[in-house]
Amino acid sequence: MGLFKTSILNGIAVLIRTLTMFILNKILAVYVGPAGYAAIGQFQNFIQMITAFAGGAINNGIIKYTAEYHEDAAAQRRIWQTAGSLVLIFSFVFSILLLLFHQSLSSYLFKRADYAGVLLFFAIFLVFFNLNTFLLAILNGKKEIPKLVLANILGSIFSLLLTSALAIFYGIYGALIALSIYQSLAFLVTFLISYRAPWFQLQHFYGKVDPAIASKFLAFAAMALVSAICVPLSQMVIRDYLSHQFNSTYAGYWEAMIRLSSAYLLLVTTTLSVYYLPRLSELTQLQDIKKEIYIGYKFIFPLAVLAGLVAYGLRDWVITLLYTPQFHPMRDLFFWQMLGDALKIGSWILAYLMLSKAMTRLFITTEIIFALTSIAWTYICTQLFGFEGVSIAHVLNYGVYWLVIGFCIFSKLNNTKEA
């Protein structure tokens, strides 16, 4: 399926998901407030890290090798069996760890021990969380876009209903519980959608771990784990710094800003993962790869720029509609945030090439360096420009990142005949 058809189908899911995110943002703004946003952001970053270590780190590998062996059903089954077994093993291990340390983790994440029950819910539902993303990765690699779109739509609606209900009745505690369980419960939806597919057989998803296949996943696991540590951890450090430098309310404004960025860029980012990763994984000739990258810059990058311009032009209306007047100070972040978002998408078009071609060393090195520089830029820019500096740092970091990975990737590709 080509970029245009993929984008249309994906656009339907993104439209629904974006609407649900906007509605959910409004509900959370009313019922948890800016300080509550900061706590939600901390917990989401924690979830990203734990799910990656508990098996989610190999999802990009599942997509790549499912797409790469599209003509070899037996090879695909070996890929899935090894991946499924690894997901089950690591999910169980990290569930036990969460159960053992939920009290101390609650004190560290939320600065209060009475939220420990949130960690218990997360521990119990962790395996279903990762099984859901496991099946979604197979659907993506198989290029069964309609089923993937349907699963994402139903998952978005389910998330909205569950999170809204729990946030309205139980406030921040309910919202945190919803984050712990909604993707796990969405597994039931994804399972039912996948169940009727001709390739779906339960015995294909667990059993003997093939060492050769597991070693193939190692590069993807290393990249995903570094990303799952560096990006969320840098955000947690920045959020904690903003809380101390200003206060937790200002950390909540920043959290609201980055959540808005995620929402309005959703069509772009999901198209990259749904279309670009499996597509680039299939290509071996340098000219074909360059052509695909050119298509990305011709169609995807301008879409990100346009979305940012619209968001900036409607910033006052957006804050009023999606949040509350209490969030008005985040207005100062819009210009620099939108500019930084455009640079981020420009760099991500190349970053997906690193993932698809398992450029492990380059990916890990740049992830670590630019996670650290994001923290450093934030400190420097907030000292110079105040709270607005957190978004100026966003621009500087992704501008330099784009230049560096562009130079490194094309130097590497030009030195090889095939990727």
UniProtKB/TrEMBL annotation:
It is a multi-pass membrane protein. GO terms for cellular component: plasma membrane. It comes from the Bacteria. It is found in: Cell membrane. InterPro entries: Poly_Biosynth_Transport, Polysacc_synth, WzxE. Keywords: Cell membrane, Membrane, Transmembrane, Transmembrane helix. GO terms for biological process: enterobacterial common antigen biosynthetic process. Its main location: membrane. The chain crosses the membrane at residues 12-34, 46-67, 79-103, 115-137, 149-170, 176-197, 217-238, 258-277, 297-314, 334-355, 362-380, 392-410. The keyword Protein transport does not apply. PANTHER family: LIPID III FLIPPASE (PTHR30250:SF30), PST FAMILY PREDICTED COLANIC ACID TRANSPORTER (PTHR30250). This is O-antigen translocase. It comes from Acinetobacter larvae.
